[in-house]
Amino acid sequence: MKAYMTNGTVDFLEKLDEKYTDINFHLMTSNSGALAYYENDEKNVFSSGRAYEIIIRKGTIQEVGYVIMNNIPVTGDGRVPFEDRFKQRQNEVDMMPGFQAFRLLKPLKGNTYVVFTQWASVADFENWKNSDQFKKSHKGQTTKPPAYAADKPFITEYHMLNKDD
Fold it and tell me: ABM domain: which residues (predicted)?
């Protein structure tokens, strides 16, 4: 399964949603703009966007929620250990209250993976960050970047855009 995303204005992304009625777009907004995301194996409709292979897929993306995307540049040699690390701990987050969806997205071009999590609310995400499960899953990580890191990771956060509003 593939995942696709692109950024743009809310108006532009809503027009894409109207044009491609056969695609289930998930529209999101942040302080820096809007994002459209969808999953399928058929086609990429974005002329300028990003494409990914879904390595791990948990839960169903909801139309209401809070999305955190941890964007992690990974070296070529680091891809396998990076993916294995997530495969070994993939069941830890989905038991948390407020969890909705998780995706580990491998870039089809470039080196920046996306760790996508969706929560019912910001508070649910914060509870996850402060949980014993979070500490366990991130145990052993220090301030020094792991060997697979190609650059400094960055986080993007979004709130789902209600298409009916």
Answer: 66-158
| Record: fold of 2-160 | Alpha-Beta Plaits (3.30.70)
Write the pLDDT tens digit of every residue in 82-129.
999 888 876 678 889 999 999 999 999 999 999 999 999 999 999 999
Answer left, alpha or beta for residue 98, where phi above 0 means left and psi between -120 and 50 means alpha: left
Could you state, in order of their start, the residue ranges of all structural domains in the chain? 2-160
Instruction: Answer whether 150's CB lies under 8 Å from 111's CB.
Output: yes
Beta strands per DSSP E along 9-164: 26-30, 33-40, 50-59, 66-73, 99-107, 112-119, 154-160
pTM, full prediction:
0.89
- Locus of tokens 């470039």: 110
Residues of the chain falling short of pLDDT 70? 90-91, 138-150, 163-165
